[in-house]
Amino acid sequence: MNKPLFTKDYWEQAWQNDPNTAIKKMEKAGQGSYQSKGFENWAEKFNADSFSAGGIKRTKRIITWIEQQTGSFEHLSILDVGAASGVFSIPFSKKGAGVHSLEPSSMLTSMLEENAEHHAVNLNIINQSFEEVELDKYGTFDLVFASMCPALTSWKAVEKAISCADKYVYISLMAGAKENKLVEELMPVLEVEGESISTDMYYLLQLLYVNDYSYQSLIERHQKTTSMSLDEVGNNINAWFTDYNISLNNDQIQEAVEYLNDMYGKDVPVTTGGKFGKVLIHL
């Protein structure tokens, strides 16, 4: 039996040195950061989606899963890491929790302030990144919460989250490669093949196990289909192929757009999804 497989150092180094995790691929492509090109459009869409009927349903599903383990949120102190425009901070507050909302993007912080006022909730908003914030001055929290947050994609960051939590830490991440039916349709047309991409959730679960933490986890597959204009698809197609570890040149992008125009016209159905994992660490 390979004894290093059961050590913290083995898995921590493997996570740190893996160049094929989704987050590292996004960073190489200039994505996944509030300072990246196109972030403003993404933030506006994310804010709208968060408080749409579908977004509210998703939030409720996640909060219910946590409540089944923690009980009521009444009087619970929560640190929401990567709070964005309040998709979780606001419902947490409505349930009676005291919420510190940590968000590095000034644009999303402004949206968060507006949404908090609109929903008549009080939030302690901190416009800083998780990497830079000094959490000692805020004390500890009953629950540290990070949903699909790029800041929680290293064991060092997870340890920081654990260090400021009294009872629970919630982390959700992709549990497999992103899936895009349009890209999969286009790959044989463009005569390209994708490469495997590993997942941060895999390393997280291994490290929680070898460090003897108690936790509950759930892996689910979700998909959604939206209609996008041909122009929108053309603007996003290179980023979508990056998720499959494929870089397209301008000629390939043009060929893809022409194919989609012939197949679908000006409105293109885009089905995206994948496996998503969430874990609640019990301290």
Automatic annotation (TrEMBL):
It comes from the Bacteria. The keyword Acyltransferase does not apply. Keywords: Methyltransferase, Transferase. Residues 78-163 form the Methyltransferase domain. Pfam families: Methyltransf_25. Gene3D superfamilies: Vaccinia Virus protein VP39. InterPro entries: Methyltransf_25 (IPR041698), SAM-dependent_MTases_sf (IPR029063). GO terms for biological process: methylation. One of its GO terms (molecular function) is methyltransferase activity. This is FkbM family methyltransferase. It comes from Sinobaca qinghaiensis.
